[in-house]
Amino acid sequence: MMKRIMIYSDLVRSEFSNKFEDNLRLLTGTEEVQIEKYSLSESNKFLNNVEIVFLMLPDFTENNPEVLKALTNVYEHITEQHLSLIPIKTTDQNEQYYPDFIRKKHILSMTDKNRNEKLLRVIQEQSNIFHELEEEAKKISSGQIAMQDCTARQLFRYAVALLHGMGVQKNIKESLSLFRVLIGNDTFISDAVDISAVNGFSEGIFEFCWDINTYLENQIIDVLNSKDYRDAEQFINTCQLMYEMSACVYNFNADNAIRFAKTILFRNFGKDISLKAGKWLLNCLFNEADRATVNRYFDKAVDSLLNILSLSEKLWTTYQDTEVLSYLCFATYVLQVYRKRNQRSFEHIVANEVTDELEDNGTFRPPYQTIPRNQNSFNAIQILIKDFIVSRNGLTMLLERYQTEYSSNKCAILMMTELIKAANLLCIMKFACVGDDFSTWYNRQMNFLLSFHAKNDVEKRSSFYIAALMGYDKILEFLQNPYYHCSDKNIIAISESFIDLFDYHYELYSTLGLDKSKPYALISDIYEKQKQYRKADDAYLKLYEIVAERDKSKEKTIVQMLTDVYKILKKRQNANMQIAYEKYVRFAWNVCLTNRLVQPHICDAFMEEMQAIEAEYDHQLLSDSELILYRKETPREQKMIDIVYPLACKELYEILKLIDDESYNQISDQYILMIRSKMNIHYSFVYDHNRDFDQQDYLKTTRIMIRYLFDHFWNGSDDNESRN
């Protein structure tokens, strides 16, 4: 059967897609492979006999932000079908610009001079891999292939299938059990164990981490003595797997993972370091700084950051590799703040290296031992501090380095990514506990990036502003962590900056379905706690307006919102805050009039409040004699029609409260809301349960409206008006 290769290429220029297609045809021929090009909107067409899907990537930051949504939809569909996805980048754009689900894949480049060789290898390796895996997993699961007869490679592939539910029912526990058996085997590939697949799952992970730790302990001596670079690479990858997996079990063995990796890296690559090994070490030092911060060994964290500063600068000078700039940028952000806050401690760490050994001082949390740095190391660090930490031009210099390879848009996004990481670390260091210094610092750095980026073409900066807003959203997430004990001032300042940025680019953000609910929710609760009720009310009402529109089709959410509103308005009423009380009542009543999902008993509660608010106004009601008259006939004059019709709507509203849910739900949304909006809420109509339905003292207009309900909603005719 003819095999299919799918190419999604509508995001790149035709010259790139045509060139890539020609390469594929040259490599695969046309007898057994069918190559087809599709657009992202046609993702539902590749269901049968597909071997590989190639996704040609644009310069992500220079495209419409809607591209992200399209890419996400295609990726999710490909994943659901368990197809092999190979991203192809057409330029030298750094992979950090792409979404996480793209970056985790092996990305091939059209600019690679060895692209044809790599493409051929990919086609040979990936062709039919998922189909074979699924079929193999089915045979093992059904007993066609006995577990004891499986090769190690088959068992590993079966474990991967169980982890993702490919061909068999997903079973994370059994998958981890098989992985444990295979740790140390040549078939065990650390990168194939997807940590995201076990997110929220804890059973068996502790044992898995323990077994990895045991393997690393037993293997480290052999790796230290090995001359094979691949042994070190496999060991480092396994360390990284244990570090990432430990996050699922309260960082169990995370410190051991760092220690093992650091030992290998310093012993084998400490003197003559390659770029690849240098990046391994940078990642290890980054993890070390993170763990030391979490454990509140801030001196150790700062020492690791100084090592990152030194190593990344060395790698940049040697290789001019812009990827290492991310580590340099991160360290610069954190150290600038730390030095300003704790200058004496900072200077001590600059002069003294923090070792990996703890000082036995008889306390529960002994500090790390320190030793004076040698003069050369001290002098080198001092130069770096002068250039990047003390100087106001440190970040500008980093920006200029980024510009040697990337556009201004890309540079700004890269630095923003590191700014967010740095902000998180500083939160853990308790730098956001008091005052608003933290928010002032973050806003200043963001404003620098925003002002710098604003010089670019408006059409090319949409993705940047999306990233900026997501950055503020992420910072708010950090500030809400109870462990960080962040101050209300910082939360308010960041929330207000979020709102300002959103309002400045309202059309862009609203088009993407984003809103300001999070900052308004935070601000309102803080002001309420501080008894700054005017500010709280302003934020609450803006929040509820967003929720009322955004979640108008979610009954549970709308009911909960109105319940919260009712509690607040009663609180304001009891505090004699009449203006605020009336604002809440009118808002809630408007929701009742515009949303069918609000049940009548909830409407009644807010109707009573509206009646109280408007009690002093002159309401158009009928005299007793007029009531008697219009129970028998309909009004003819427009003046009386305008009076009688709202009264009839109120009668019908009260009647509909008594009917069964099935009949009520048959009435269109438009008609229900018309009755609510037109009715005179000050007219009191009480249904007499001692009388039959047709014996009630209805207005003649009400009876006509009841007949309308029977004719249009309750007779089952195909011509009936459908519910909106």
Structural notes for this entry:
The chain is mostly helical and 724 residues long. Among the domains are: 3-127, Rossmann fold (3-Layer(aba) Sandwich), CATH 3.40.50.2300; 515-613; 624-712, no CATH class. The chain is 62% helix and 6% strand. The protein is built from 31 helices and seven strands. Strands 2-1-3-4-5 form a five-stranded parallel beta sheet, with helices on both faces. Strands 6-7 form a two-stranded antiparallel ribbon. Strand 4, helix 3 and strand 5 form a beta-alpha-beta unit. Helix 28 (638-656) packs across helix 31 (700-712). The chain is globular and about 105 Å long. Mean pLDDT is 87; it is low at 717-724.
Descriptive terms for the model:
mainly alpha, two-stranded antiparallel ribbon, globular, 7 strands, 724 residues, Rossmann fold
Strand and helix map with partners:
Elements: E1 3-8, H1 14-28, E2 33-38, E3 50-57, H2 66-80, E4 84-89, H3 100-103, E5 108-109, H4 115-126, H5 129-142, H6 152-164, H7 172-182, H8 205-225, H9 229-246, H10 254-269, H11 275-294, H12 298-319, H13 325-341, H14 343-351, E6 352-358, E7 368-372, H15 375-390, H16 394-402, H17 408-428, H18 437-453, H19 462-479, H20 488-504, H21 506-511, H22 517-529, H23 533-550, H24 555-574, H25 578-594, H26 600-613, H27 624-630, H28 638-656, H29 661-665, H30 669-678, H31 700-712
